[in-house]
């Protein structure tokens, strides 16, 4: 029942010209959910850190907290954070994240 209502609403949002696609409407809804619920962002970051190949920096970005805060959150949840990238891809992700922080800081 709920799924049918969601599908109807998504189709209607697109038909009304409010979104290009159902996927874009769902994406915006998810982003709003995460923006409005810091605890969900943190839990999602913890889950992804434990179950996916993401860096501590990426987990911090997902959670919307600093690198140091994310490290503390992981430790508080019984997870020993890995310091330093294990792969080239992780190093690249951390470089991008740090560059974004520096660029944002320089533009303030």
Brief overview:
This protein has helices spanning 2-15, 22-36, 38-51, 56-63, 67-76, 88-106. With 108 residues, it is mainly alpha-helical.
What's the helix and strand layout?
Blueprint (H helix, E strand, L loop, with lengths): L1 H14 L6 H15 L1 H14 L4 H8 L3 H10 L11 H19 L2
Helix pairs in contact: 3-4, 4-5, 4-6
Measured as a percent range, the helix fraction is: over 70%
How many domains is the backbone divided into?
Answer: 2
Count of runs of 4 or more consecutive helical residues? 6
Radius of gyration: 17 Å
* N→C terminal distance: 48 Å
Mean pLDDT: 90
Number of strands: 0
Notable features of this structure?
single chain; 108 residues; mainly alpha; 2 domains; 6 helices; elongated
Structure write-up:
The chain is mainly alpha-helical and 108 residues long. It has two domains: 36 residues, no CATH class; 71 residues, no CATH class. The chain contains six helices and no strands. The relative contact order is 0.09.
């Amino acid at each position: 029942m709920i799924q049918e209502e969601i599908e109807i609403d998504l189709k209607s949002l697109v038909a009304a010209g409010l979104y290009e696609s159902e996927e874009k409407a769902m994406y915006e809804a998810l982003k709003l959910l995460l923006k409005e619920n810091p605890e969900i962002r943190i839990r999602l970051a913890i889950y992804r850190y434990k179950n996916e190949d993401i860096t501590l920096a990426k987990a911090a970005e997902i959670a919307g907290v600093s690198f140091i805060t994310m490290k503390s959150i992981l430790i508080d949840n019984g997870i020993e954070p890995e310091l330093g990238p294990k792969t080239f891809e992780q190093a690249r992700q951390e470089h991008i994240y740090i560059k974004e922080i520096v660029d944002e800081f320089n533009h303030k």
